[in-house]
Amino acid sequence: MSALTADEIQANLEFEVGQRYFRKDLHDVCGGNHQPGISPVTDLSAIFLFGSTTESQYGYRDEWLPNDHFLLTGVGRDGDQSWNGLNSSLASHHEDGRRAFLFEKVPDREPTVVTYVGEFEYVNHREDTIPDRSGELRRAYRFEVRPVEGGSLSVPDEIEDAPLEELYELAEQASPTSTSGISPTGDSGSSGYTRSDVVQTFALRVADGVCQGCGEPAPFENDEGDPHLEVHHLHRLSDGGPDHPDNVIAICPNCHARIHHGTDGDEFNETLVQRAESLSEQVA
After folding, report:
1. Distance separating alpha carbons of residues 127 and 188, to the nearest angstrom
2. Residue 235 and residue 82: Cα distance in Å, rounded?
3. What is the pLDDT of residues 202-224, one digit of tens each?
4. Are 205 and 164 in contact, with CB atoms under 8 Å apart?
5. Cis geometry, peptide bond prior to residue 111 (ω within 30 degrees of 0)
6. Which end of the chain is more exposed for a tag (fewer CB within 10 A), N or C?
7. pLDDT of residue 212
8. pLDDT higher at 222 or 270
9. CA triple 229-18-186, angle to 5 deg
10. Distance between CA atoms of 1 and 184, rounded to whole angstroms?
11. Which residues, including other chains, have CB under 8 Å from residue 11's CB and lie 6 or more apart?
12. How many Å separate Cα 118 from the centre of its chain?
């Protein structure tokens, strides 16, 4: 896919997931600093985030977490990172009325090319000890951000007890890929479920306490007394995979770790893709 240049970029926040941009041209049109990974864009009340999951010359890298959250390293290449300025601007973007947009660097491209991942929001941050560009260990901030789900949906109050076919239909309508016209609402009569809540509830109901990877019962119960399984997106949200009932499956922590860290993770994930297709055909 070719990257968009300044002549093709609009000075607004209507980005297309998966589209590539020359970073310099993106800033030339929209504003913001060309260098740091956290770049406020004042005129658009936004903040651009730039991550790289390839190995960094400074000995660390950003990373995708199993729940499709992103771990972004703070700004500052030498010595301890400062909380003032760009780093604090990410943590306070909600209070400041700024929307946050995540871009991921395309490796081995000069000038710098980035891929738009989506609108994200701050979850939390932590302090880590990592090397600076001189190789000296220092304090650095790492920010966890997650995809913006688009608000709550008006759904039945007893969603967990809904028939499986009805739950699938609701999850399908809640997906961003749906053309049904369902929209976020703050209706006090709803249970306040997000798109992700509905889709994840569907995946857990289908599994019924049994890991869909290894076929074993959930290894333990959560603090609510329910079997603990983790909902896995078969195609990452960052790769354009939708929050859709056909794109999720509930698996145990061990199988989840196998996908993301095992030597056969990609092959195992493909097996689960086929299994999810079969399950969806039985329900839909």
Report:
1. 38
2. 36
3. 888 889 999 999 999 999 998 78
4. yes
5. yes
6. N
7. 95
8. 270
9. 60
10. 32
11. 29, 30, 44
12. 8
Q: Determine the pLDDT at residue 186.
A: 32
Beta carbons of 143 and 132 less than 8 angstroms apart: no
Cβ(28)–Cβ(21) under 8 Å?
A: no
pLDDT tens string 114-129:
988 888 999 999 998 8
Task: State which amino acid sits at residue 78.
Answer: D
The model's pTM: 0.57
Average pLDDT over residues 41-49: 91
Other Cβ atoms within 10 Å of 220 Cβ, number: 9
- H or E segment at 48? strand 46-51
CB 88 within 8 A of CB 75: no
The tokens for 217 are 């019962």
How many CB atoms lie under 10 A from the CB of residue 240?
14
Q: What DSSP element (H or E) covers 90?
A: helix 86-91
Residue type present at position 93: H
Which among 29, 34, 23 has a CA at the least distance from the CA of 9?
29
Residue 226 or 160, more confident:
226
> Could you tell me the domains of the chain?
3-147 (2.30.280.10), 152-283 (no CATH)
* Whole-Å CA distances, 198 to 162, 175, 244: 11, 9, 9
Is residue 159 within 8 Å of 124, Cβ to Cβ? no
